[in-house]
TrEMBL record:
Domain HTH iclR-type stretches: 31-92
Region (Disordered): 1-27
Record Gene3D superfamilies: 3.30.450.40, Winged helix-like DNA-binding domain superfamily/Winged helix DNA-binding domain
Key words of the record: DNA-binding, Transcription, Transcription regulation
Organism of this sequence: Ralstonia condita
Residue span, IclR-ED domain: 93-281
This protein's name: IclR family transcriptional regulator
InterPro entries, A to Z: GAF-like_dom_sf, HTH_MetabolicPath_Reg, Tscrpt_reg_IclR_C, Tscrpt_reg_IclR_N, WH-like_DNA-bd_sf, WH_DNA-bd_sf
UniProt keyword Transcription regulation, yes or no: yes
Comp. bias intervals (Acidic residues): 8-22
Amino acid sequence: MSTLPADTDLDLESDADGDIASDDSPARTGIQSIEVGFRLLEVLTHTNAPMMLRDLARAAPMNPAKAHRYLVSFARLGLVSQTPEGRYDLGPFALEMGLVSLNRQDPMRRARPAAAALRDEIDHTIGLAVWGNRGPAIVHWEEASHPVTVSLRLGDVMPMLNSATGRVFGAYLPRAQTLSLIQGELDRATAQVDANPELPRTLEAYDAICAEVRVHGAARIHGGVLPGINAMSLPVFDANGQLCLVLIALGAQSTFDTTWSGPLERRLRLAAQQLSADLGYVATHTPQS
């Protein structure tokens, strides 16, 4: 005889939206309103910008008044936030959940201690980034003993055009996956009269940068996103040969040498290759120095 409790033992109550969703098995009983409200979070997860209530409700699909009730509760829980313009976006607790989930994945579990050991050895700030729904997201930092003053935080998204991390993702991910973000940044760079003259202004120019990244197996930036800060980023591949995360190192321009085949570049390359090997990746070619 089953020891599972019956619905009457669970003290489940139905709300105006029809709270209880069940089938023939009490073990599969759920809260329907949670499943309905989740559609709003799912839409926000797969969009590239905050949304107005009417657009979010239409995409769910859901009546705007009903969507607003869910969003009020989600906002209280930190799952959504609202911009000054009244648009809705994922909130701080949603970000926290995402970061925790990413850090529990096998590549991240293996990469975090390796990043800490590398930081201890070279005494430069080391980071890890993964591809999120909005682009390259920072998910882990190991600060050097002489911390570099940066405005980056966990969860921040790096630009595709002028960050070493973004260029690695641009070089190794399928272009269909990255094109909308790359093109959006290209459009904004073209529209800005005082934009960084070193920024690529066309997709062809960006393709040339990505080709160079693949040749060297790394990307380097001199004061791109962070003035006065040099950075190098290198790909880490999984057992299927797919890019699963990016290893980042950065430091002050006065102490961080980005010379190809220099001592720092060679050590970072070895660390990225070791991480890839730990994940089961078998290299088929050696990048040029």
